[in-house]
Amino acid sequence: MKSLERFLNSGWYIMLVFGFTFLSWTFYQDSPPHEFNVYNMAGVFFLILVFGVVIALYQNTLYTIPLLMSFLFVISKTDMTFETVAQMGFPYIAFFIFLLGPVIHIIRFRPKPKFGRLMIGLVLIAVAYLVPLTYLPFDVRAIPVSIMGVLYVLVYLFLSSTTKGNLDYLFKIMIFANLLFTAQVFVYVYRGMQLFPDQDLYRRLLQGWNRNLGWANINDMCFYIALTFPAYVYFIFKKPQSWLYWALMLLPVTAVILSTSRGGAISFSIAFLGSLFLIAVRGRKPQLLRGLVVFGVAAVFFALNYGMFELWWEIYFDSFGDDLNAFSSGRIAIYKLGLDVFREYPLFGGGWLSLQLLRPGARLFAYHSSVIQALAAMGLFGLVALLVHYFQVFSYMFEKVSLEKSLFLIGYVASQVHGLIDNVQFDLPYSVLIVIFFAVWETAERKTSFELSSRCYLAC
Predict the structure, then answer these.
(1) Residues paired with residue 457 on neighbouring β-strands, in sequence order
(2) Cα 71 from Cα 89, distance rounded (Å)
(3) Which terminal Cβ of the chain has fewer Cβ within 10 Å, N or C?
């Protein structure tokens, strides 16, 4: 058992989990009569099996974190709507089997409930999710998404009560998650290239797949890459003599460029420049020299392929459109719809089906703004709950600031800036990620692996 625990505590385990997640995700074509791809479903159930074994064997649920995160990023079905989610049996069967693991863990180890720093804000958000159900016409499609707030509270409470956190382990998870997102974007690019075999290489690279990636669309992928990108900097500081993390850092940079996502470019630029700034002001000579060499080589490569960047800018500029609504990819019209719903239901909002009712058949829901989403779906109460959540996040992160907290803040702020033009905060994977990260952070005995000496962070 000790040897197994050492493996679970290693980067190899995390890499295998996310590697299997990626492999399972690549099976995306429907397998009639099933709504999902059979191999994708089999991958989900295998992950649930491993999760159940690990959570039943070990009192410390830290080792389940990679598996918990894998469930968020494994689904490859592209056309999910409220109707299909309400009708499909697979997600519910998988979820109820998944619940057996925590139930067994609670019965065996009897953990004492511990309430973390984010609990008040999360409870308020959970209430805001549910209240519209009490006065809007009953619709079974609203139930799955309306109980998501309760799910976030339960995940946070369970992990806060059962996890012995480790920040080094958390940053290993973040860097492998970033590589997973990057690999999924590269598949998106490759599939797009296959659709246009007669075009030149540069145009094929920038075409895209003409479909979303199942659990996320291409814009979403970019803010998840931005959120986890600073993990590379953690290991650049921890292993200043290594070239590996500098080289790996170029992969998500390339993925975001090839995605041609305007919102993604904005949020990722914040994460990228913020990370480089931290290295510049808190790094030492080994980090700075390696950074100059790696980005020097990258600059030469990009210069030799200048034609692609001319084409990228042409595509980027053409996407601006002829008016503000076109420039925003139709978001202004959606914002107006959201504000109309808010005016009709100002206190507690029009519920999570409001956009679906205005635009039947739309892919799930999104007002393309965290603030508009809060106002339209949950009203002023939801906005206040969101502000309380933000206050608790930032008050914790600015308390005894460390390198790890600085890195998290860079990624978090970058993703939240993206939330001004996309529904980031209330995206299910994002909300679950935040409660997971904080549960690990708050329960970690060692709050930092670095000390500040002569204005530089040194591993200790």
Answers:
(1) 452
(2) 17
(3) N
Mean pLDDT, rounded, of the chain: 89
How far apart CA 176 and CA 426 sit, in angstroms, is 23
The DSSP letter of residue 132 is: G
Contact yes or no for 385/129 (Cβ under 8 A): no
CA atoms of 31 and 249, how far apart (whole Å): 36
Residue 415 CA: distances (Å) to CA of 126, 138, 210, 278, 459? 22, 34, 24, 18, 27
Q: Is 398 helix (H, G, I), strand (E, B) or coil?
A: coil
CA dist 312 → 183, 193, 195, 436 (Å): 20, 15, 18, 36
Question: Given CA atoms 373, 376, 380, 385 in this order, what sign does their dihedral have?
Answer: negative
Q: State the Cα–Cα distance between residues 404 and 268, nearest whole angstrom.
A: 19
Reading the block at residue 218, the tokens are 């291409």
Could you give the residue ranges of the DSSP H alpha helices within 319-369? Answer: 324-327, 331-344, 354-358
CB of 237 closer than 8 Å to CB of 283: yes
- Selected residue with higher pLDDT from 354 and 134: 134
Task: Decide: 23 and 15 in contact? Cβ < 8 Å.
Answer: no
Determine the 3-state secondary structure of 457 from DSSP.
strand
Residue 77 DSSP symbol:
-
Q: Before 33, cis peptide (omega within 30)? A: yes
Structure-token pair, residue 183: 């690999």
Q: Tell me, what DSSP letter sits at residue 31? A: -
Query: pLDDT tens digit string along 283-303?
Result: 998 899 999 999 899 889 888
